[in-house]
Every structure is written in C-alpha cells, then in structure tokens.
C-alpha cells in the first residue's frame, strides 16, 4: 500500500492531506475500531466528510481560527472525527486529560491555554462527565451547551457527545452521516498550532506540549520513511491519543491504517485475547502497547501453551527494557523494536532487539536529526559508559510548554539550558559505538510503567488527610512496571488510621483516565515508632526505600 510521504507546500497542513487522501484514496480505511468483536472502519472520504461537518458546526457556533478546544473523549470514532474537525475548522486540539478527582489538572490547562470549549461524552461512567456536568448551566438539544466555571473564564462552551438519542438530539456520527450540510475546510498555515499534547501528569501538573501542522507532518512522515509504523501495512496501537506517541498522525498524515480499540464504553479494558484477535484479523505488522498489555499477552501465551501465531513486531518504549523482558517478548513476537522517546522530543533513539546481542537498558542509535549530550552535574561532557544527564536538541524537540498566562514561563525556563538543550531529566550513557543506554530518571522520580512519576505532589495530597502526619512515597522493584510505589505513612498520635483508609483516600484523589493506569501506590506501610528520621529531623528516604524494597520488592532479579 502506497503512503503519502511528500512534504510539499500543496500538502503542508493536516486538512490538506486529509482532503488529498479523500480524493485519491476515498475507500482506504484509515481508522479501524474494535469494540469486542464488532469492527467499525472509517475510510478517508468518510473521515473527511464527517470531520468537515463537525468543523462547520464549530464555525457556526462562533469558534474561530486559533481557538483552543479541549477534547476529553477516549480512543473512539467520535474522538477521531472531533479531532479532525477541530483541525479543519482552523482551531487547536488540546488533549483534555483528567486524572485528579477535583479536576485541577484539566482546569489548569484550560486556563493557561485560554481554552474556549470542551468536548465531553455524556456517558455516566466517564470521569470527565462526572467532573464537567455540574458546570453546564444551560443544557440544550444541540451539540453546544453553555459552560461556566469561575476559574476558567474563557471556557464558555461544552460540546456534549452522545451515543444515545435524546429527544430530537441524535448521536453525533448518526447525525452527520445522515446530514447534507456543508463541509468546512478553513485555510490554515503550516506554522499554525494544530494540537497540544499532554505530559503524563506525574508531577500533579500535566503540562501542554504544542505542535504545529508542520511539526506533526514532519514527525509522522519521518516515521513512515523509517518504517516505524510499518511499510504501508495496518498497525495496531491502543495508546492514548493525547500523548504524541499515541496520536494517529500516521493515518492522518500518511495514509496508514491504524487499528485500535473503541474505548468509548470499554474504558480501555481489553483482554489479551481481544488484542490478539484484533491484531490477527487485521494482519498487523506492528503492535504498540503499554507494559501492562504486554504482560497480559505474555501470561495468556504461557497459560495457553503459546500463541497460535507469533506477533510480527512488538514496539515498546516509555520505560527501561531489560534482557529478561526482551527474551520474554521474543517468545510472543518475531521482532522487538525498542524506542526512546517522549511527547516533548518525539523519538530520540531506537533499535531492533535481538536475544543474542540485547543488553539491559539499551535504546540503540540516535535517529536522524537528533543531537544528544551526556553531561555530569557540573555540565561537563561524559566519557563513553560514564553515567550522566541526558540533554537533547533537534528539529522534532519542542520549543517550550504552552502557557498564555505567564511570560516568561518559569516551567519552560527550567526545562532548557541557556544554550537551548532540552533537559530530559533522564540519566544514562553512550557506549563506544554510540549506542544510548537509559537507566532512569532523577533521584526522586519513580518510573511507573511508561509514566515518570514525581512523588511530591501526591505526598502533599496525602498530608492533607487529618490522620496523616508525614507521607513519603518510594519506589520498589517490579518486573512489569520497573517500579511500583509504596506509601510510607506516619499517622498522627492517637490516630487509628488503617491501610484500607489510606488506600481509599488515594483512590479518591486520582481518577483513572481512559486507557491510562494512574500512579496510585501499590503498597502501604503504616509506621509509628519505626518511622526513620535523619539527623536533621527529615524523613530518611534511603531507609524507607530499603524497608519498602525488603518488604515488597521483586525477588526474581534479571539473569545476567
């Protein structure tokens, strides 16, 4: 299958490329969704038509070029149509990530972006709906409803998506499939912002990473040319669309077929059997999964005496990969492709792992266009195999977090050196052959699957509990997620605080975003007289870490 890999001026925005594909390959399936055994395919022409009608509604309801619209929908046909409709209207899609139960993460991002509207499903199980529904002040029979929230004054419109008919209000896709209304394609420039992706929110503050049409096209054309998304064959990825690695840019920009789950009602809870059936039915060449899904497939394989048919290629990234993990993955996949990447940087390095030559934490060679430095704490260049901090530069590295309220932005200032190297906060080394090895994050970070979790914000939340005097979160080794999290709690005097109490409190703080595993502690220690302190009366994190590791750490260490 041929791909659209030109970056010519005639095809320099996402709407232009979608229009071209709708005319050149009208029947090509760009997006295929699975809901259990139910398959829904959307061709280039269907996506262009449905998204164009949604764009027309946006313009009719006062949205203008450059306006920011938050999209809280999970992976689903509705998410694809509304994202593309935002682009076609000349607006900017902001991923509406909701992790905290009080919504402070979402509302902060709507405030700093001066977001004008928010797209939300009225599914009663949706975390976003539970959060946003009380602020819909004038419900209506149209898509657009008045929204009022005191701390986000620019956010005045809720675009409510439903799969159920309510009076004269039909489901979004049914309405546009039956409609004859105009298709809107606003003229946009390559340098216009197209999307704002989210970081994981592990610091309690999910930051916004802006990307222009030009940025997105360049990155995904490079992916297609470097065969990161297959050589034109369908590929499966059920990662979150608001993370740059999960965004369906290869479908929207290059014409690949993206296979993914319909999470509108499933909420991302696919079984290993579901994933394998979906992948086999579509004859996918590449499968991109989160670590918990990889483990589920490995366990399924072991319990069933192996897979009927091995996967073609398993693509993994976002956390350290060990020799043991590679060997386990090669039991279910012919090839394992390891990438080192982030929403801020796109892909930095990659390699095809082989059992005979794989090494712990090896991430391969730098991709074309990336510059990288390994420096010590004094900023001096490290020698081969000398551990240091990883700094990167390159055309695909973002220029700074999005913030329209602060100038200069203090978060951006901390993210870059004076000579504009991005500080990844990872540490690693280069070997003599220029292979990159990434060992982890800074000393306080906990690497929880594909999430880099900064514990201080959750520690502060825990200390708001009336029975908690002190709270420290420490990592413990885990074979799947690299680290799990242990909450070490010092209760107040005379308190009867229990592990169940603190577990329930943690669960009330963090909401499980669709398809995303929130960084809640997996283990708890309620310590009274045994809580360790340093000589200057600070919690002794090293002793707490050892206590937690001794109690809960993974015993089956990697084979040498």
From TrEMBL:
Tell me, what is one Gene Ontology molecular-function annotation carried by this entry? Answer: CoA-ligase activity
Residue intervals of the AMP-dependent synthetase/ligase domain? 23-402
Q: Which CDD domains match?
A: AFD_class_I (cd04433)
A Pfam family found in this protein is: AMP-binding
List, alphabetically, the InterPro entries matched: AMP-bd_C (IPR025110), AMP-bd_C_sf (IPR045851), AMP-binding_CS (IPR020845), AMP-dep_synth/lig_dom (IPR000873), ANL_N_sf (IPR042099)
- Name all AMP-binding enzyme C-terminal domain ranges: 458-537
The name under which this protein is listed is: Uncharacterized protein
């Amino acid at each position: 299958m041929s791909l659209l890999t030109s970056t010519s001026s005639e095809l320099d925005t996402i709407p232009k490329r979608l229009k071209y594909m709708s005319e050149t390959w009208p029947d090509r399936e760009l997006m295929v969704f699975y809901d259990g055994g139910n398959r829904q395919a959307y061709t280039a022409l269907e996506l262009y038509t449905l998204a164009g009608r949604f764009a027309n509604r946006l313009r009719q309801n006062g949205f203008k070029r450059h306006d920011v619209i938050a999209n809280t929908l999970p992976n689903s046909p509705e998410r694809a149509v509304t994202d593309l409709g935002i682009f076609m209207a000349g607006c900017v899609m902001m991923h509406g990530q909701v992790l905290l139960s009080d919504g402070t993460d979402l509302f902060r991002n709507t405030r700093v972006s001066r977001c004008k509207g928010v797209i939300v499903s009225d599914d009663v199980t949706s975390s976003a709906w539970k959060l946003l529904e009380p602020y819909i002040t004038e419900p209506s029979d149209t898509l657009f409803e008045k929204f009022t929230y005191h701390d986000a004054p620019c956010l005045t419109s809720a675009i409510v998506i439903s799969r159920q008919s309510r009076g004269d209000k039909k489901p979004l896709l049914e309405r546009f499939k039956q409609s004859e209304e105009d298709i809107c394609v606003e003229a946009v420039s390559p340098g216009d912002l197209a999307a704002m992706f989210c970081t994981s929110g592990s610091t309690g503050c999910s930051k916004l990473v802006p990307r222009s049409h030009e940025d997105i096209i360049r990155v995904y054309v490079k992916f297609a040319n470097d065969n990161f998304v297959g050589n034109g064959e369908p590929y499966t990825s059920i990662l979150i669309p608001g993370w740059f690695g999960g965004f369906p840019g290869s479908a929207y920009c290059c014409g690949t077929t993206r296979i993914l789950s319909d999470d509108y009602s499933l909420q991302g809870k696919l079984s290993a059997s579901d994933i394998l059936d979906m992948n086999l039915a579509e004859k996918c060449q590449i499968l991109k999964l989160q670590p918990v899904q990889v483990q589920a497939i490995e366990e399924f394989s072991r319990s069933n005496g192996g897979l009927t048919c091995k996967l073609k290629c398993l693509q993994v990234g976002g956390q350290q990969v060990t020799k043991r993990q590679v060997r386990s993955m090669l039991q279910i996949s012919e090839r394992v492709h390891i990438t080192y990447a982030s929403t801020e940087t796109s892909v930095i390095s990659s390699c095809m792992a082989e059992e005979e030559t794989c090494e712990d934490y090896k991430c391969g060679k730098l991709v074309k266009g990336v510059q990288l430095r390994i420096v010590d704490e004094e900023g001096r260049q490290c020698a081969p195999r000398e551990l240091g901090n990883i700094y990167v530069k390159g055309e695909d590295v973002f220029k700074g977090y999005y913030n329209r309220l602060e100038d200069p932005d203090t978060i951006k200032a901390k993210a870059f050196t004076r000579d504009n190297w991005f500080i990844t906060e990872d540490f690693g080394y280069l070997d003599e052959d220029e292979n990159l090895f990434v060992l982890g994050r800074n000393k306080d970070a906990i690497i929880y699957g594909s999430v880099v979790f900064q514990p201080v914000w959750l520690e502060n939340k825990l200390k708001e509990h009336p029975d908690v005097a002190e709270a420290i979160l420490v990592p413990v080794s885990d074979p799947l997620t690299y680290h799990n999290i242990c909450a070490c709690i010092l209760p107040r005097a005379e308190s009867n605080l229990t592990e169940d109490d603190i577990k329930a409190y943690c669960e009330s703080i963090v909401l499980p975003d669709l398809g995303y595993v929130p960084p809640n502690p997996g283990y708890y220690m309620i310590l009274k007289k045994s809580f360790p302190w340093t000589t200057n009366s600070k919690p002794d994190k090293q002793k707490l870490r050892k206590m937690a590791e001794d109690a809960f750490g993974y015993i089956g260490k990697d084979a040498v």
